Amino acid sequence: MAETLVEMRQIEKFYGRVHALRSVNLRIERGEIVGLLGDNGAGKSTLIKVLSGAVAYTSGEIRIKGRPVQMRSTLDAIANGIETIYQDSALVPQLSIARNLFLGRELRKGAGILDRLDLDRMNAVAADLLKRVGISKNIPPTTPIGSLSGGERQAVAIARAMYFDSDLIILDEPTNNLGVAETQGVLRFVREARDTGHSCVFIAHNIHHVFQVVDRIVVMRRGTVVADDLSPRTSSIQQVEDIITGEHMAA
Amino acid sequence: MSDRTTALPPGAPARGPGLLRAFIAQPEFGPLVLLVVMLVVFTAINPAFLSLTNIGNALTFTVELGFIALAMTMLMTAGEFDLSVGSVFGFAPVVMWTLFNTEILPLPLAFLAALLVALVIGLANGLFVTRLGIPSFLVTLGMLLVVRGSALWLTDGFPQRTWNAGEQWLATVLVGDFYIGGLRIYMSLIWFILLAVMFHYALTRTRFGNWIQATGGNPGAARNRGVKISRVKVALFMVSALMAAFAGIISSIRVSAANPNSGTGYELEVIAMVVIGGTVLTGGRGTILGTVLGVLILRLMRNGIVMIGVPGLAYNIFIGAIILGMMALHSGLERRHNAGV
Ligand SMILES: Nc1ncnc2c1ncn2[C@@H]1O[C@H](COP(=O)(O)OP(=O)(O)O)[C@@H](O)[C@H]1O
Ligand SMILES: [Mg+2]
Fold first, then answer.
1. Potential cystine with B89: which of A231, B50, B199, B248 (Cβ 3.0-4.6 Å)?
2. What distance in Å separates the CA atoms of residue A64 and residue A30, rounded to the nearest whole number?
3. Looking at beta carbons, which residues of chain A come within 8 Å of B205?
4. How far is CA B49 from CA A104, B86, B121, B295, in A?
């Protein structure tokens, strides 16, 4: 059965005097897609930044596959199999798709002064990956990222996470500013990622997008998790929206 | 996924039909056209422009700034630049010839010592920029004054003699000359070609080159992927100072004097060469080939306007106009490029 991939326990985060996370607990099983919902300022981004090593947490514990780990930097997170995909920020616009895929882990050949990039192999792998995430049409792997659309960039970042076999792929509002077709593309990649055994945390403003792909919904409000076992199969959008806004308590 | 035709910028390189369009979109296209136009115009007005003697002369003086321009291309691709190169150009030969003339060190060791001093200067630049987060404009401006001041102080402002260089094998290796047919070739030109090939290879074919582009293109993303961006920058500041020292030493042997004031203003001329060649001042995109073109353009312009009878003092007008024209061209292409996304 499912193995627990990530366990965050009693995470606290202060930004100065702002109490952004209040004793947050979050579990992610292997191969599941978790939708993280909540109003603006609920603490979603902060929570996944803690998990991806982008911000330091004040206290609490993070376990990966049962083992306690320190997340001091994004490199720590990547080493632990956690990839985060932010809109744009994770790619270098001037470099080609293939060079971006392998940035920091370049394939090389030759020795000494002739130690050089194995561009043929990098391009071949990239072309293959592009096909897998479904954007191979007429886009050579030598294309600079800067000339891709927003959705295609997300796809490249997802392809990278898949290639390096990250256990967990975090997407913070990946569908913001995307067109309808591009959004469908991103959602398709997320399913593809799950089908190949990756877990995902998916944050999106549009609750309909979330309902289309996730296995489980976690709702945050004012720095705490207020629900963590909602299923898009048994809950309605209206019910989840009520929990996000706190309406259900008033009722 | 989205329609390719909407996502594809009109000038995107090497996609679909139209090799010509792909060629035009290359950053080297503008400078290449300009160079050809210059050659045609200058030769039409004064056919002696294309004579072997003139080309030989132009090429000789070209390379000294060219060495620095190669390194500056790398540095600017990584998103930084170095204003202290002109002062290192003046200081390194002063160090070398002072050590040699006072018989502290034999010439080859004095040469190495001068390069070592340059490396330390580059290291200091790099550490100030990366550790303290001070913009390279301010750091290298400060270093310019420190280094130029040191050269003047060390020499009391007087040029160091270099006459004994003639018998030294090192001098022959650095600035000796030979003839191919009627064309006089200086060793420094060979060095320049060699280094240009090496720099081009390093920037486009190696992991270090990939890291340089990533460092300038999106430092946050690069750092997140494990690229050691501080180390990349420090290394490039050191290369920059090394090249400036190398160029200064070659120049001092050629003109038989190590003048503590030489190289004044070279930093701006070098940066002009690099940006005219198509390297972006804000980092991320650089081209060694373009820089070689930029070096030739500035050099032949200086040489050409004199040959066609324009007063040499007007040189800066032309260079300034070329910089403005090239920037307008590059920004036009850039805008067209971005409009398509
Ligand atoms: N860098 C920061 N400095 C100070 N406060 C911050 C910072 N980032 C987020 N916050 C605050 O933390 C709270 C949670 O923000 P965030 O995690 O971005 O929420 P969400 O992603 O759910 O919209 C908000 O009150 C926000 O203002
Ligand atoms: Mg957010």
1. B248
2. 11
3. 116-117, 119
4. 49, 29, 40, 17
> How many CB atoms sit inside 10 A of residue B169's CB?
10
How many whole angstroms from B208 Cα to the centroid of ligand 2? Answer: 34
Nearest to B310 by CA among B319, B273, B275: B319
The pLDDT tens digits for B279-297 are 988 899 999 999 999 999 9
Distance CA A155, CA A167 (A): 17
Give SS3 for A236: coil
- The answer to whether the CB of B260 falls within 8 A of the CB of B93 is no
Token match 């370049």: residue? A106
Q: At what angle do helices B136-155 and B107-131 cross, to 10 degrees?
A: 150
ipTM over 0.85: no
User: CB-CB: which of A78, A103, A108 is closest to B227?
Assistant: A103
Q: Average pLDDT in the B232-238 region?
A: 98
Average the pLDDT over B231-253 and give the result. Answer: 96
| Helix, strand, coil percentages, rounded to 5, for chain A | 35, 30, 35
Report the half-sphere exposure of A123 (CA within 13 A, side-chain side): 12
Asked if A155 and B7 come within 8 Å (Cβ–Cβ), the reply is no
d(C-alpha B58, C-alpha B60), whole Å: 6
CATH number of the domain to which A103 belongs: 3.40.50.300
B103: Cβ contacts below 8 Å, ≥ 6 apart: none
pLDDT at B323: 85
Instruction: Check CB contact under 8 Å for A147 and B2.
Output: no
- Split at pLDDT 50, 70, 90, the class of A2 is low
Q: Label residue B199 by pLDDT band (50, 70, 90).
A: very high
pLDDT exceeds 50 at position B12: no
Candidates A12, A15, A21, A48: which one to mutate for ligand 1, based on the most atoms within 8 Å of Cβ? A15
How many whole angstroms from B201 Cα to the centroid of ligand 1? 45
Question: Which of B129, B41, B6 shows the shortest CA–CA distance to B309?
Answer: B41
For chain A, the domain total comes to 1
Of A141-155, A219-233, B182-196, B228-242, where does the model show the most confidence?
Answer: B228-242
pLDDT in tens, B17-30: 577 777 777 888 88
- Expressed as residue numbers, the domain containing A83 is 4-250
Q: What topology does CATH give the domain B52-334?
A: ABC transporter involved in vitamin B12 uptake, BtuC (1.10.3470)
**Structure token pair of residue B245:** 């020292």
Nearest CA-CA partner of B233 in B143, B125, B139: B125
